[in-house]
Each structure stands twice: as structure tokens, then as C-alpha cells.
Amino acid sequence: MQRCEWGGNNPLMIRYHDEEWGVPVHDDRKLFEFLILDGFQAGVSWAIVLNKRKNFRKAFDNFNAKKIAKFDAKDTKRLLNDAGIIRNRLKIAAAITNAQCFLAVQKEFGSFDKYIWQFTGGKTIGNEWKSLKEIPATSKESDAMSKDLKARGFKFVGSTICYAFMQAAGMVNDHTTECFRYKQVSRKPRQPIAAAKKTR
User: Fold this and answer.
1) Total domain count for the chain?
2) DSSP assignment of 117-163
3) What is the model's pTM?
4) CB atoms within 10 A of CB 32
């Protein structure tokens, strides 16, 4: 069975590749989880983040944005002492800030889903990469997303992080054409979204 090369021999990475990566996500909680985890990925490998995913879910109240938005100094100290996650003060602070910004976007657009999917016109961008080396680190869509998220106060949302988020959330199908998941993901029904307000 042919897979994308990046999964390697790590069972957790292979499962993530086979079951989640590239599948369109329209659930706000899951979108928020990817946004936070991709922020923590900055400077480290996705395998490290994935290995700590269960711990992240426990430490961050299963990525409940309303709860995280209220985290205080006591929570920050707790997280900095939690060996089960990536203990980076700036990233932890960013997660709290991003939860607050996330709630603001939900209030403005009705859901984060409606807001974020507008950057790809509400549908998955189907690429046709033959090898891993062809896959870009950014795109014009991730550039636009990054710019708008930053304008709204989000942190750790550079274009590279935004593109990784788009890949994870199925906003782009970056499985290589020889990968068995390429056609499977392409066949998944695309959920239409209501017209969103213009970004800033």
C-alpha cells in the first residue's frame, strides 16, 4: 500500500495519515485543536506534537476555547510544569490569546468554520503532487489567512503554520497522487458553507 513518505514507520503518524490528514474538517472544536497544535509545532516535528496529543487534550480541557480563554497565571504555571506537553511560555500564552480571538471570530461569523473556509472558497483545493519535495510550505491562500488572523490578534499563525493547518483540516489535499488516500480524500463530499463576511 503506497503512502505519503512523511509518515515513515511511526504507527501514530501512519494512523494520523490514514485517518485524519487531508480530511475536510468543519467542526469548530476540531479546527481549534488543529490551530493550537500547529502553533505548538513551530520549530519541532509534527511527530513530537502527535505523540503528546492526548496530553495536550487533557491539559487544555479538550480544546474547549471558552475554558482556555479564561486561563490565568495559575493555569499558565500548571501548563509550564506539565511534562506531557511542549512547555513553551510564548506558545502557551498564544494558545490562551488564540482562544479569545477564536471566540471573537465565532461571534462575528457564526462559526469559525464559516470564517476559515472562505480562504479556499469553501472547498478543498485538490493538488496533484507526485512527490513530497513538490509540496510547498506556503501558498497564496495561507498567506492571506495568516495576514487576516494576525490582524485579528492571533499568535503563531505565520503562513507556514497556516498551510500546515490547511493540510490537516482538509482545506488542501496534499496527499501525493500515488498515495492510496489521495483518491479517497478527493471523493469525500464537500460541505458547502454560507457566505461569510469579507475579511479585513
Assistant:
1) 1
2) GGGGTTS-EE---SSGGGS-S--HHHHHHHHHHHHTT-SS--HHHHH
3) 0.90
4) 22
Give domain status of residue 200, yes or no: no
Quick check: 79 and 92 in contact, CB under 8 A?
yes
Q: How many CB atoms lie within 10 A of CB 76?
A: 15
Residue 199 lies in a domain: no
Say which amino acid occupies 27. Answer: D
Q: Which tens digits make up the pLDDT trace of 27-36?
A: 999 999 999 9
How far apart are the C-alpha atoms of 17 and 136, rounded to whole Å? 18
C-alpha cell at 46: 509534527
Decide: helix, strand or coil at residue 125.
Answer: strand
Which residues, including other chains, have CB under 8 Å from residue 175's CB and lie 6 or more apart?
4, 21, 22, 181, 182, 185
In angstroms, the CA 54 to CA 62 distance is 9
Q: What is the CATH number of the domain that holds 86?
A: 1.10.340.30
Q: What per-residue confidence (pLDDT) applies to 188?
A: 54
Give domain status of residue 198, yes or no. no
> 164: domain range?
5-187
Across the range 106-131, mean pLDDT stands at 96
Give the containing element (helix H, strand E) for 104.
helix 89-109
How are beta strands 172-173 and 125-126 bridged, if at all? parallel
Residues 73-93 pLDDT 10s: 999 999 999 999 999 999 999
183, burial (CB in 10 Å: exposed 0-12, middle 13-18, buried 19+): exposed
Read off the C-alpha cell for 95: 494558545
Is residue 55 in some structural domain?
Answer: yes
